[in-house]
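Budget justification, computational time. The allocation requested in the original proposal was used primarily to generate structure tokens for proteins on the priority list. As evidence of use, we reproduce two of the resulting records. The first is shown immediately below.
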Amino acid sequence: LIETYEKSSDPLKKLERTLFEGAERIIGICGSDEKCDVITKEFGYDLAINYKTQNVSELLPKNEIHVYFDNVGGDISDAVVENMAKNGNIILCGQISQYNKVESVKE
């Protein structure tokens, strides 16, 4: 991954390389095959999971996720958290799947 980004002059790719420096494996979760192609072919991710067509829980490495950047929440986040390594880190940026969720409040 690092070699791929060092050869690129694209500033975004250089930023991505810096953010993931030292990572053994990078997995991205997207909502389309096109986005999965971009993160694997252009950004160098090792694996892309399309959450609309694939089972996220089944494809994640079990208890081996050391860093999770979450901006979605919900079922996807639950699947990742269940597979976190001991002492793993979660960066919580947002919970977009929960913003418009309507729940009844019991009094």
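The second record produced under the same allocation is shown here.
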Amino acid sequence: IGQLHRRHRAIEFRKFLDEIERNVATLQGRYPSVLRSARRAGMMFALDFADADNGMRFLAEMFLRGVLVVASSQRLDIIKLYPPLILDSEHVSTFAERMESALRAMS
């Protein structure tokens, strides 16, 4: 039963990651002058901003909204997202709302 539960949880987690990817793509389409592109590699997402100032502003805006994101150590125009393993649909929705609020504040 434990293995079956872990498999089900992994499938559910993948669905949440896919939902985050869709939400990020939608927001990139709404705010293309701020968020140039987004990409996903496994569980990690990279958000490409117009410049380092926008990247750092997004980081600050998300922090003000209670969401931790990570700046790339090499390029400040790239912000990384590392979703936790304890995701649920409420977390995904809250993240999307807060990300949109941050991007709107930057526009």
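A brief technical remark on that second record: The chain has a mean pLDDT of 92.
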